[in-house]
Predict the structure.
Amino acid sequence: MQRLSSKDLVTILDLSREDIETIFETTRSQKPLARAHELPHSHPNRTLACIFHKPSLRTRVSFEVAAQQLGAGSLYITDREIGLGSRESVEDVARVMSRFVDAIMIRTFDHEHVERLARAATVPVINGLTDLTHPCQILADVFTIEESLGGIEGRKVVYVGDGNNIAHSWINAAALLDFPLVICTPRDYEPDAGIIEKARAKGNLDLTISHDPKAAVEGADVVYTDVWASMGQEEEAAERARIFQDYQVNEALVARAKDEAIVLHCLPAHRGSEITDEVIDGPHSRVFDEAENRLHVQRAILHHLMA
Ligand code: CP
Ligand code: NVA
C-alpha cells in the first residue's frame, strides 16, 4: 500500500500533487467496487476515532462508513467524553489516543488544536473541518470536477460567498493544482490573508479576489457556494443574510457561466439564501454526486494514511 508524503491531513498543503493523484487513483479504482459491495477488507483490526465538536451529517457518516468498508472499526467521540484542552491537554489526548486507535479524524473549532493533535499523535490525524479549513471536502470537490469535466486543469472555479474554511481550502487546492480560482465575497468577508500568503509561497497560485458576482462567474466552468453563516456564527446569520443578499447563486447568475458549467455546494445548504432550489435541483448541479464522493475520496485517504 502506497504511503502519502505526510503522516497527517491537516490542510491540503500537507499533500503533494502526487499524493492527490495517488488518492484519486485509489478513489477511482475503489468507487465501483464499493458501490457493488465488493470492496475487499484491506484494513481489518484497525480503528478510526472520529472526534466531533460540531454537528455533521456527511463527514460523520462518510468517515464511519468508509472505515467499515475497509474492514476497520470506528468510534464517535464528542467533547463531553474527552474535554480536549480542558479536561486534559491536547498533547496528552494525542498520546493516549495513539495507544488505542490507528487514526484520528477530528472536527472542531480551533485549527491550532488540530495542528497540536497531529504533532503530538503518532497516528495519522485528519482534519474533518475547523474554523479555518475543510480539506476533505475540497478533495472530494476536485474529484467531482474531474469526473464531471474530465479534469480540473485550466478550469475556471468561481467561489461565491463567505471567505470561510471552504474558500481557504479552495485556495490551498489552487496552490497545488493548475486552475484559475476566483473568490468572490462581500467586502470585509474576504479570505484570510495568512492563508493566501502561505498558498502563494507554493508558487503556483492563480487567485483573483472579486466583489462582483456577475463579473466573477463570467465564463466559469465551476460555480461553488457555501452557507453565509458557518457553524459557530449562528448569531451573525441575520446580519450576514442582509450583507450577502447579492451573492446568491441563482439561475440568473449561473446563466453567466459557461453553458456546460457545473454547480457545487458542500452542503448543508440554506435553500433560498446562498443557493436557490432551481439551481441546486437543476441541470448544472452536481451537488449530490459531490456529497457521495466524500465517502469515496475519504475511504481512499484512510486507505493510504492507515497503511
Ligand atoms: N459538507 C460537510 O462537511 O457536511 P457535514 O457538516 O454534514 O459533515
Ligand atoms: N462553512 C461551513 C461548512 C460546512 C460543511 C461551516 O463551517 O459551517
Remarks:
- The chain has a mean pLDDT of 98.
- The longest strand covers residues 47-52.
- The chain has 13 helices and nine strands.
- The chain has two domains: 12-133+293-305, 136-290.
